[in-house]
């Protein structure tokens, strides 16, 4: 049976939101979801190298859209971490995500919140071990704050592109837009010149503006695609890392703590060793 | 389609109308259908990835195939609406209306002519006799044959659309969850009743089944679990709609490319005030199998130029 509906009796339904095990088990399954989405993004990026111009543009928009979608998982996980009553069933609406990402791109997460996300614990006391770990942890906090800010910025930059691509990806080429709307003007000429000067364009197009019947000239740049690839990688690691470090029963043993490569990339070998030996972290 | 020209051809469009009205819309439609053709190729790649994977990777990759197939069905249904209902996609409100339009019920009258309108078969009603005669065809007999082909095509397209629609509805909740933040969870719920008002819920991690939470409102407690397993039944469903899409999308693309070529070719002709033959009015049929006579007619139309506007 490919599809099956399992009705939930009322008495079980009432308990679901209150059951941290259920909510966290669902959350836990997102580790694989995030990894699978990132894997598809990396697969598409690799395909772009030998693709025709048309296929490169198609894959580029797919990459950007998938990265927006994986960013939304980050948003929902963060919402849940902040308030377990928020989005218990992992369906944050667009308005909620907008407000969240607006705050995150401006302020990221606080130091304390970043520490909670990674379960950063300094060994007790004021010994050399505690000082060494605390020093390295400061770097980890900055890295996670940067990752959250970049994810939020990417979401804001491309969420409307993703909506266009998923809902009705219609556009005109520049030539078609000039042909269909031949009246030139300094404003349009400036936009076209700007587009012409944009390096590494994957696709240049004119879309109908969402506010009226005018063309909005835009370009998908290789930089956007590379950014999407990076965000998908960082966002998926962020999701896996946050969930892997959660404590409840459905999660790994409470003393097992993980750090994924994007977090430790800027650390020296000595600093990584401090985290492993003195901080009880497993560096994935 | 009438067996004799039921209407006089409308006056040829003016240059302003062609440039400012028809062509932008045709270009927009063409860009969408070109991307749909690319998505069809992309789905084949995704399906290969799914076939090559096992365990959880197979589950997630199968969901990728499902979602992109579902999305392509949504887009082809939007194209139907754009053409059949003359939706002007240059207006934001009309673009947004497509999301609901595709699910709106049709009156019996609309239903009877829907796919005739999608593929512009009524255009044949205004082709003058002389256009057939120029191709060495008998006008009345040609119209009679074309009407039969168009009716068979529309009947087949209506049946195919019903299959696409059923698939779209069947997998709608899963695909909606996929595109909205991947709210699909690799777990298997089991509810065991222990009494009239008592029972237990057991949830286990799964690498073969995904679960969507069905709720009446966003973030409300779900009233049911919808589980999906990419099994033989799933792949039979997917393969069946892909066969339909592989039949329709490439023809839709060549149809709209031909229509664009015809519209572009009209511009210099109108500018110069001449009436040289334009590329043929596209006629794309789904009425297989064809009799020898029907096939000969279709071949003649493909080779020749069936002109809507005759030189005075």
Question: Could you explain the architecture of this structure?
Answer:
With 284 residues, chain A is mainly alpha-helical. Chain A is 64% helix and 9% strand. Chain A is built from eleven helices and five strands; from the N terminus they run βααααααααββαβααβ. Chain A has a two-stranded antiparallel sheet. In chain A, strands 4-5 form a two-stranded parallel ribbon. In chain A, helix 2 runs antiparallel to helix 3 and helix 4 crosses helix 6. The longest helix of chain A has 40 residues. The two termini of chain A are 38 Å apart. About 2% of the residues of chain A have low confidence. By secondary structure, chain B is mainly alpha-helical. In chain B, strands 1-2 form a two-stranded antiparallel sheet. Chain B has a two-stranded antiparallel ribbon with strand order 3-4. In chain B, a hairpin with a 5-residue loop joins strand 1 and strand 2. In chain B, helix 1 runs antiparallel to helix 2 and helix 1 runs antiparallel to helix 8. The radius of gyration of chain B is 24 Å and the shape is elongated. The two termini of chain B are 25 Å apart. The mean pLDDT of chain B is 89. At the A-B interface, strand 1, helix 1, helix 2, helix 3 and helix 7 of A face helix 1, helix 2, helix 3, helix 7 and strand 1 of B.
Calculate the terminal CA-CA distance of chain A, rounded to whole Å.
Answer: 38 Å
Mean pLDDT of chain B: 89
Biggest protein-protein contact in the assembly: A-B, 67 and 76 residues
Low-confidence stretches of chain A: 249-254
Structural class of chain A: mainly alpha
Q: Could you estimate the helical fraction of the residues of chain A in percent?
A: 55-70%
Helix run count of chain B: 9
The shape of chain A is: globular
Structural class of chain B: mainly alpha
Could you provide a short overview of the structure?
Chain A is mainly α.
């Amino acid at each position: 049976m490919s599809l099956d509906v399992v009705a939930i009796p009322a008495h079980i339904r009432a308990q679901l939101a209150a059951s941290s095990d259920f909510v966290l088990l669902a959350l836990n399954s997102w580790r694989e979801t995030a990894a699978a989405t990132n894997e598809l993004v990396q697969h598409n990026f690799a395909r772009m190298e030998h693709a025709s111009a048309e296929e490169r543009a198609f894959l580029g928009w797919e990459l950007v859209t998938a990265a927006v979608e994986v960013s939304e998982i980050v948003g929902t996980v963060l919402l849940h971490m902040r308030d377990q009553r928020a989005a218990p069933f992992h369906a944050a609406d667009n308005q909620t995500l907008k407000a969240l990402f607006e705050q995150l791109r401006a302020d990221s997460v606080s130091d304390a919140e970043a520490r909670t996300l990674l379960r950063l614990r300094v060994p007790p006391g004021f010994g050399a071990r505690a000082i060494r770990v605390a020093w390295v942890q400061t770097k980890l906090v900055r890295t996670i704050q940067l990752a959250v800010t970049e994810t939020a910025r990417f979401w804001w930059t491309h969420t409307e592109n993703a909506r266009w691509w998923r809902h009705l990806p219609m556009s005109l080429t520049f030539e078609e837009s000039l042909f269909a709307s031949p009246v030139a003007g300094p404003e349009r000429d400036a936009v076209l010149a700007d587009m012409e000067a944009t390096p590494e364009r994957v696709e240049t197009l004119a879309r109908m503006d969402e506010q009226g019947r005018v063309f909005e000239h835009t370009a998908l740049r290789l930089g956007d695609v590379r950014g999407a690839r990076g965000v998908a990688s960082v966002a998926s690691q962020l999701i896996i890392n946050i969930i892997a470090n959660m404590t409840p029963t459905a999660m790994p043993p409470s003393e097992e703590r993980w750090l994924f490569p994007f977090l430790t990339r800027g650390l020296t070998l000595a600093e990584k060793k401090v985290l492993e030996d003195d901080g009880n972290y497993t560096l994935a | 389609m009438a067996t004799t020209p039921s209407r006089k051809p409308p006056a040829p469009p003016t240059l302003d109308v062609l440039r400012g009205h028809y062509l932008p819309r045709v270009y927009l439609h063409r860009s969408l259908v070109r991307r749909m053709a690319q998505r069809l190729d992309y789905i084949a790649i995704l399906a290969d990835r799914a076939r090559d994977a096992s365990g959880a990777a197979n589950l997630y990759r199968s969901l990728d195939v499902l979602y992109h197939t579902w999305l392509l069905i949504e887009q082809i249904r939007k194209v139907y609406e754009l053409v059949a209902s003359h939706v002007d996609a240059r207006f934001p409100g009309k673009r947004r209306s497509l999301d609901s339009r595709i699910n709106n019920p049709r009156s019996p009258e609309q239903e009877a002519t829907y796919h005739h309108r999608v593929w512009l078969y009524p255009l044949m009603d205004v082709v003058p006799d002389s256009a057939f005669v120029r191709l060495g065809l008998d006008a009345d007999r040609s119209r009679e044959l074309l009407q039969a082909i168009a009716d068979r095509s529309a009947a087949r397209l209506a049946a195919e659309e019903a299959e696409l629609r059923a698939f779209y509805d069947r997998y709608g909740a899963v695909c909606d969850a996929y595109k909205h933040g991947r709210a699909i969870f690799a777990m298997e719920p089991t509810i065991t009743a222990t009494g009239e008002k008592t029972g237990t819920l057991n949830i286990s991690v799964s690498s073969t089944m995904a679960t969507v939470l069905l709720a009446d409102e966003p973030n409300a407690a779900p009233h049911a679990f919808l589980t999906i397993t990419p099994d033989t039944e799933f792949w039979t469903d997917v393969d069946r709609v892909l066969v339909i899409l592989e039949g329709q999308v490439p023809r839709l693309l060549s149809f709209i490319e031909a229509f664009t070529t015809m519209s572009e070719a009209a511009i210099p002709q109108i500018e110069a005030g001449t009436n040289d033959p334009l590329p043929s009015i596209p006629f794309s049929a789904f009425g297989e199998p064809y009799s020898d006579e029907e096939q000969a007619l279709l071949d003649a139309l493909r080779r020749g130029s069936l002109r809507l506007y005759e030189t005075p």
